[in-house]
Amino acid sequence: MNKINKIKNIIFLSFIILMISMVVYFKLYNLNNIQQIISSKGRLAPIIFFILCILRPIMLLPIGLFSVLGGIMFGAIKGTILTVLASVIGSVIAYYIALFLGADFFVSYFGKSINKYNLENKNAFKVTFLMRVIPILPCDFVSYICGLSKINLFKYILGTFLGIIPGTYIYSSFGSSLNNIYSKQFIFSIIMLLILTIVPIIIKKRSNDFDILNGEITNEENIDINTTK
Q1: 134 contacts 216 by C-beta, under 8 angstroms
Q2: Residue 126: its pLDDT value, please?
Q3: How many angstroms separate the CA atoms of 70 and 77, rounded?
């Protein structure tokens, strides 16, 4: 391991320890606790929520958790807007973290299996959008893979922004409807959540080699993530 990789390891591990410490100390894994923390800030509540949403990918907390919380605290529309905008910023940070650390660093932690994902730069928008709107892979994993692939940043941001809106709205609408489980909004949200859960499962079962996006995401072992066009 060369000096640069050692420095990257130290930075990465220090950062992970800091993030885990924050999650544990503030109990950010608990929806009710996060809500209490944000609510206690009064008029600053939307800003605190926004900041936490930005940090969420780094703390590896589920995006659905914050989408639901946004709906509970601010309503379906405002909750969606806050969550989407913050999530896009967070995804850009995750993108640059992966870009900074590099493929070799991730291979040292996760093995060569990380090389099975290859994103064609010329289709950066389509690939990013489809992976966001159809959650085949975890949201944050997509961000890191896109950073490793060095796909066009503008297309990545646009694909992320447009792709996460439907899912975020569904979760926010669900959160907003929890105060009345007999409402049409609640029933609609449950149906849409089921669809959002079932569709990726069906796609995975129908695709043996994970070639779901016209060959632009593949799990062939001989593909090197650094060969992206």
Answers
A1: no
A2: 87
A3: 9
Maximum C-alpha span of the chain: 60
Distance between alpha carbon 13 and the CA centroid of its chain, in Å? 21
Parent domain of 79: 3-227
Burial class of residue 118 (count of CB atoms within 10 Å of its CB; 0-12, 13-18, 19+): buried
Burial 197-207 (b: 16+ CB within 10 A, else e): eeeeeeeeeee
pLDDT single digits (tens) 31-43: 889 999 999 999 9
Instruction: Give pTM, 2 decimals.
Output: 0.81
Amino acid, res. 180: N
The structural domain count of the chain equals 1
According to the 3-state scheme, what is the secondary structure of 59-81? Answer: HCCCHHHHHHHHHHHHCHHHHHH
